[in-house]
Amino acid sequence: MTSSGATSRTDADSEHADLALLRGSGRTAMVEAALTGSKQFDPGTDTDLQVSVHQVHHRPGAGVSVGYSVSFISRGHRVHDYVVASTSPAATGGEGVALLDDGVRQVRMWRRPFDPLLPGLRSASDPEVVSSWLPASGLGSAGAVAIRTVSYRPTRRAVLRVESAAGTVFVKVLPERKSADLIARHQLLESAGVPAPRVLATPVPGVCVLSAARGSPLAQAIAGADTHPGNLPEPAELVRWLDLLPEQTLTLPRRPSWSDRLDFHTAAAAAALPEQADEVVDLGARLAEALTVVSEEEEVPTHGDYYEANVFTNGGTVSDVIDIDSLGPGRRSDDLATMLGHIAVLPDLAPQVYAHTPEVLQRMRQDFETRVGAHALRVRTAAVVLSLIAGATPDQARARLRIATQWAHASVRTRRGANSNLRELSSASPVPLMHATDDEVIANSLGQKDG
Hints:
- Helix content is about 40%, strand content about 20%.
- It folds into three domains: about 5-110; about 120-210, Phosphorylase Kinase, domain 1 (2-Layer Sandwich); about 215-445, Aminoglycoside 3'-phosphotransferase, Chain: A, domain 2 (Alpha-Beta Complex), CATH 3.90.1200.
- It is globular and about 65 Å long.
- It has a five-stranded antiparallel beta sheet.
- The longest helix is centred in the first third of the chain and has 20 residues, at about 5-25.
- Helix 8 (about 260-270) runs antiparallel to helix 9 (about 275-290) and helix 10 crosses helix 13 (about 375-385).
- By secondary structure, it is α+β, with helices and mostly antiparallel strands.
């Protein structure tokens, strides 16, 4: 009988091969075959097919999905499309889904509206259909609408921005069961008076029409922290929104936090950085060891994905918070670590835009560490950053591994006896913890670039 470890290794090797295939040079031929089969592309007359990898979604044990930005010349005009290739067992057949089978693996491919697990996406991508939904949403007659995809995770969810003369709304598409759960969460927050978008309509199963969030994303306030400091909420204001969550939140199903799924995210990060896979796995193991000794926390209502893109602000206050899919019971340190971890990676995304992020991050960390245990917060922040490696570009992935390592090192200083009881949390070059303050160690994670 094959051991579970051997099985895991076999599965990991298979998924590494899937990643190489779907991201490799053969992707153009696969997309051409899928588009030809769906009669969207005629290789006899259409030319200059361009296929670039837009996003990689790797869920260890659940397959690989890759989204491609596609364009080609048809009848003298450039046509743009979006195609997904997936080895996920959850990706089934159906209208608009092509199956490619080379005898070794099966790859299912579809144009974005034909996601087999998001049947509502077809209607939500049709301007005429969406326009007919808006009067029931309380917006009056909308007329022509413009639809833009904000985010899309194959087989899991899509968010579309809809603009019309009647105003702006967002359409969220989920599997039907999850859509019902989301509606219940929005209604819970609305009843409690917690600032969040409202459900305006549920026109078809799996589709929610939501009001637009008020204010601007916290990311904008962070970017303008030096020129418009009054727009940046104090850390206590960010915590205040969490304090508003009603006690009924504790009755919702609990969803694992980023640190609860450390093994999953470590495997995904190792696949994304194969040349540093040993370093990733070692860091994940040491973080897991550190999490076994953190103090237990009181279970409280949590957002579950509380970070700068989901928090909207106006004049230094939190005006709305979006993406409440994971609302439920959990640890306050996980919500705060999610905020810190996402902000920690901003400078590598846009160094000029987020030049003042280290100062913002330091203020947040210092405040948050008065509310939850510093050791738990830093370890969980390292776990959050580790979870952000998969799906990033290679340069960003390497930077995030460095940042996660820095947070892990900084956590050692907050545990009594850590130098004698804990092994070094990373096999990377050691940080001089005995000769630097905690703030300097964490600031290094933002200012130090890869050589």
